[in-house]
Each structure stands twice: as structure tokens, then as C-alpha cells.
Amino acid sequence: MAGFNADEHDEVMSEINMVPFIDVMLVLLIIFIITVPVMKHAVNVELPRAANEKEVVLPQTLRLTVQADGSYWLGEERIADAQLGARLQAEAAKTPQPDLHIRGDRDVRYERVAQAMAAAQQAGLAKIGFITEPPKR
User: Engineering a disulfide at 105: which of 34, 56, 68, 71 sits with its beta carbon 3.0 to 4.6 angstroms away?
Assistant: First the structure.
């Protein structure tokens, strides 16, 4: 590309001519302005919603409380020692099997908590957890 002659000087101009570049950019801008609304025009349709995920059934939580006097409470109901094994077997037969959360009083003898754990294991409960309080700060 030949240079431009500067006014009265015999020197060649070494600046880039921006006019053709600006022309190309303006043409592209006009093309985009025209084509964007065309791409957005469509028929509005309310599509149905469907999920292909399996429904997850979360197991219930079964609370077994061992009070300081050694008595057992299953949920809000007091349970005799003889009934504990049968009630836990009935809960273990459910599908999905509930999680057993054992809450033992801090003053209860460990033997009573161990008996409750043994009864839960014999009943066939697979998930047994202990509920405690976090330490005070």
C-alpha cells in the first residue's frame, strides 16, 4: 500500500488509515442489529416439566432415649425392657429401614445403653448413632 503525501512535504505518512476499519466495524454492527431480533422471534409455548430422576425416599429417624433412671423411651412413648426388642424388630422390618438415634442421659449406667445397642443389633437395625451435646465454650 502506498503512503500518502503529507501536505507540502515529501515524506511518506506512516500512520494507519482507520477509515476502512471503522467502515467494516459499522457494517458488522448493522448486521448484528438486524439479525438479533430475528433470532429472538419464536412462538411462545408452555412446555411441560418432567423429571427423569428417581424419587429418593429418606428413611425415618427413630429416637431411643435412655433416661437417668434406666428407663427406655421410643420416641415419646415409654417402653418396657421386654417390649424393646420386639418394637425394634418391627422398625427394622420397614423399608427403608429407619436410622436409630440413641440419646443416653449422662448419669445413666453404661450397661443400659449397651443393652439398648445389643437389642438394636439383634433386631437387625443397620444404622445406629449417638446423640450428644457439643461442649460449652
Answer: 68
- Rounded distance between C-alpha atoms, residue 127 and residue 58, angstroms: 13
Tens-digit pLDDT profile for residues 18-45: 888 899 999 999 988 888 776 666 677 7
Say if residues 70 and 63 touch (Cβ distance below 8 Å).
no
Q: Which residues contact 31 (CB under 8 A, 6 or more apart)?
A: none
Residue 3, amino acid: G
| Separation of alpha carbons 96 and 79, rounded Å | 23
Instruction: Give pLDDT tens digits for 88-122.
Output: 999 999 988 999 999 999 999 999 999 999 999 99
